[in-house]
Each structure stands twice: as structure tokens, then as C-alpha cells.
Amino acid sequence: MANTVNIKIVRVLLGLLIPTSAIKTHVTMAQDFSGAATTVEIEEKAASHIYLMEAAAGINTLQSFYTPSSGLYQTTAWWNSANAITVVAKFSKISGSKLYLPVLQNTYMQAQKLYYGFLNHFYDDEGWWALAWIDAYEAGPFSSAVAAWA
User: Fold this and answer.
1) What is the pTM of this model?
2) For an engineered disulfide with 89, which of 42, 67, 69, 136 has Cβ 3.0 to 4.6 Å away?
3) In DSSP terms, which residues pair with 38 in a beta bridge?
4) Cα 121 from Cα 78, distance rounded (Å)
5) How would you label 56-88 residue by residue, b for 16+ Cβ within 10 Å and e otherwise?
6) Do residues 36 and 1 touch, judged by C-beta distance below 8 A?
7) Distance of alpha carbon 41 from alpha carbon 63, whole angstroms
8) Are 58 and 95 in contact (CB under 8 A)?
9) CA angle 51, 52, 56 (to 5 degrees)
10) Adjacency order of strands within the sheet including 37-39
11) Secondary structure class of 102 (helix, strand, coil)
12) Pairing of strands 3-4, 37-39
């Protein structure tokens, strides 16, 4: 027998995050931990909003490890910072936010002081940086330094 979640409860729980007009009545989702089907529907747009808010919180935490003077992230190796930049760039692209574009620009200018052109003779590291800058380019123009890419 399916457990039904009262839509009013869902509206109360999500009301601060999602307009109630974005919540529909119900749809069967995955089974809960007890094996019973749980019934709730949240319009796709509303669900995306929740994910975007969670992603924004994650990016905010990630940025607490960012060192502007080096353009890299603390406690990570050279290539891990490339992965972090990829995350920032993808968040910027998906959310449409321009808030972190200065981070991309700063990293582009500062980090290559360690390895010019982001080349350090480890092909996998160079690959991570290449992927990061492709994503950064797709996030939007963030520097005159990349005008040559266009």
C-alpha cells in the first residue's frame, strides 16, 4: 500500500523555497526505505530550483577554500583545482549566474604563474585544465584574455 504525502505538508515544507503554484498534486516516485511507494509530485521546474539552491550552497562552501593570490584551491593538488574550476564554470553556465565569473578570470591570470599555459608535463593534469577552460568559455566571456578563443 502506497504512503501518500499530504500536498499541504509538501507546500509547508517547500513553501519557503518554491511558490505553491509550482507544486502539483501527486505522482508515484521511487520506493522509500521500507519498500512502500511514496506519492508526491513537484513540478520539474520546482525540483530544479531546489537542486540549484543546493548547488549554490555547495559552490559557496567550495569558495571558502579558494586562494585568490594563487587562483587555486587550498588542500588540493594542481589538477584538483582544475576540477574545482570546472564545477564553478558549470554552475555559472547552468544557473546563469555571473557571480563567480571573476573567480574564473582570476584563476586564469594567477594559476598559470605556477605553470605557464597550464602545462606541467603531466598530460592528465593538462587535460583537466583543458576541460576546465572549455567549460569556463561556455559559461560566458569572463576575460579579455580569452578573446582569442572566439
Assistant:
1) 0.66
2) 136
3) 3
4) 12
5) eeebeebeeebeeeebbbeeeebbebbbbbbbb
6) yes
7) 33
8) no
9) 120
10) 3-4, 37-39, 28-31
11) helix
12) parallel
CA atoms of 75 and 135, how far apart (whole Å):
23
Question: Degrees (nearest 5) of the Cα angle 54, 60, 66?
Answer: 145
- Which of helix, strand or coil describes residue 67? strand
* CB of 55 closer than 8 Å to CB of 95: yes
pLDDT in tens, 53-71: 888 889 999 999 999 999 9
> Can you tell me which residue has the cell 511558490?
19
CB neighbour class for 139 (10 Å; exposed up to 12, middle 13-18, buried from 19): buried
- d(CA 55, CA 130) in angstroms, rounded, equals 23
Treating both helix axes as pointing N-terminal to C-terminal, what angle do 101-110 and 123-139 enclose, rounded to 10 degrees? 140
Q: Where along the chain do its domains lie? A: 3-42, 66-149
pLDDT (tens digit per residue) in 102-136: 999 999 999 999 999 999 989 999 999 999 999 99
146, amino acid identity = V
Name the residue type at position 91: F
